[in-house]
Design goal:
Largest sheet: 9 strands, antiparallel
Strand order of the largest sheet: 1-2-3-4-5-6-7-8-9
Radius of gyration: 20 Å
Shape: globular
Number of strands: 9
Structural class: alpha+beta
Oligomer: single chain
Length: 259
């Protein structure tokens, strides 16, 4: 019942944003319900009645190009379309030291996340309120390889790259294919333990054992076999299956044959 109620609430929020002329490309992206859920939490949305609509009318700005923007609780959020899909930018201000942490995520039209970037820097409260950008002193960027759908992690401090390796490190990227031992060779040669890598990729002991077994296979698996395992793990561990079609299309795999 709660799930049905939440779906109805998000559909109502989506329709409200549609009436506010938010970009159709944004509203039709497979990621939209994840984004709507976050907006709902930000505004403690229970019912989208006229009073709530009045609050959203005041706090949510919709720009001419359909970009959605709001400022709430020392946090500024922008959600917009781009040439490849959509992007979300969340920036949080800490008044204790005037620091800002920015989180940027890019998704293609199939909902696959292809960039996740964290920036850290400083800005005055006045400039933060005025939506002025800041120059990051530290940046960590995760970008997805277009062929294997693995992630390249690059950490920068100032203008210098201090770390670069291939791995999935953040829980948002559940649609990522599990990496094979061959893909991990760059990291393993650097001394990173397979147990540490599995801990990044899993949420519980059952997942840990499953992924570790996959990594420890003697031979690299083909993309179709990896995709089957990916779908099987999504089902077994009740992970989102929303992006399976998009991943299959990106890899050139028939989803019917793979299953």
């Amino acid at each position: 019942m709660n799930e049905i109620y939440n779906i109805r609430k998000l559909e109502s929020l989506k329709e409200y944003l549609n009436q506010r002329m938010v970009s159709p490309r944004l509203l039709n992206n497979p990621r939209i319900y994840e984004i709507l859920d976050e907006i709902s939490d930000e505004f403690s949305l229970i019912f989208l009645d006229e009073e709530m609509k009045g609050i959203l009318d005041e706090q949510i700005l919709v720009e001419k190009d359909g970009t959605l923007r709001y400022f709430k609780d020392n946090k500024r959020v922008k959600i917009k379309r781009n040439s490849s899909g959509i992007e979300t930018i969340k920036e949080a201000f800490d008044k204790k030291d005037s620091s800002v942490i920015s989180e940027k995520r890019l998704f293609d039209n199939g909902g696959i996340e292809y960039l996740y970037e964290i920036r850290e820097g400083n800005l005055s409260w006045e400039d933060f309120e005025r939506n002025i950008d800041f120059l990051p002193s530290k940046k960590i960027r995760y970008t997805r390889d277009s062929t294997m759908l693995n992630f390249l992690t690059k950490e920068e401090i100032g203008k210098f790259i201090v770390k670069e390796h291939l791995i999935q490190q953040v829980p948002y990227m559940l649609q990522n294919l599990k990496l094979t031992r061959k893909n991990l060779s760059r990291i393993l040669n650097g001394g990173t333990k397979i147990d540490d890598l599995c801990e990044f990729l899993t949420n519980n002991q059952a997942e840990f054992d499953t992924i570790k077994e996959l990594f420890n296979e003697n031979e690299s698996k083909g993309q179709e076999e990896i995709f089957k395992i990916y779908c099987s793990n999504n089902k077994r561990f009740q992970l989102p299956t929303t992006y399976e079609n998009a991943v299959a299309k990106r890899l050139g795999i028939s989803i019917e044959m793979a299953r």
